Amino acid sequence: MPDEVNVLYIKAKSWLNASPPRTLTIGFALIIAAGVLLLKLPISVREGHDLSWLDAVFTAASATCVTGLVVVDTGTFFSTFGHWVILALIQVGGLGFMTMSTMFAFFMRRRLSLKERLILQEALNQDSLQGIVKLVRKVIFYALTIEAAGSLLYTLRFLFDMNAGKAIYYGIFHGVSIFNNAGFDLFGDYRSLSDYLSDPFVNLLSIVLIFLGSVGFIVLADLVEYPKRRRLMLHSKVVLTVTAFLFIAGAVLILICEYTNENTLDPLNFGDKFLASMLHSISPRSGGVSTVDVSSMRQATQFLIVGLMFVGASPGSTGGGIKTTTFAVMIVAMLAVIRGKEDIVLFRSRLEKDKVYKAITVTIYSLALLIAATMILSVTENHTFMTVLFEATSAFATAGLSMGLTPELTDAGKAIVIVLMFIGRLGPLTLFYAAGSKPGRTLYRHPEGKILIG
Amino acid sequence: MPDEVNVLYIKAKSWLNASPPRTLTIGFALIIAAGVLLLKLPISVREGHDLSWLDAVFTAASATCVTGLVVVDTGTFFSTFGHWVILALIQVGGLGFMTMSTMFAFFMRRRLSLKERLILQEALNQDSLQGIVKLVRKVIFYALTIEAAGSLLYTLRFLFDMNAGKAIYYGIFHGVSIFNNAGFDLFGDYRSLSDYLSDPFVNLLSIVLIFLGSVGFIVLADLVEYPKRRRLMLHSKVVLTVTAFLFIAGAVLILICEYTNENTLDPLNFGDKFLASMLHSISPRSGGVSTVDVSSMRQATQFLIVGLMFVGASPGSTGGGIKTTTFAVMIVAMLAVIRGKEDIVLFRSRLEKDKVYKAITVTIYSLALLIAATMILSVTENHTFMTVLFEATSAFATAGLSMGLTPELTDAGKAIVIVLMFIGRLGPLTLFYAAGSKPGRTLYRHPEGKILIG
Ligand SMILES: [K+]
Ligand SMILES: [K+]
Question: Are B289 and B193 in contact (CB under 8 A)?
Answer without folding.
Answer: yes
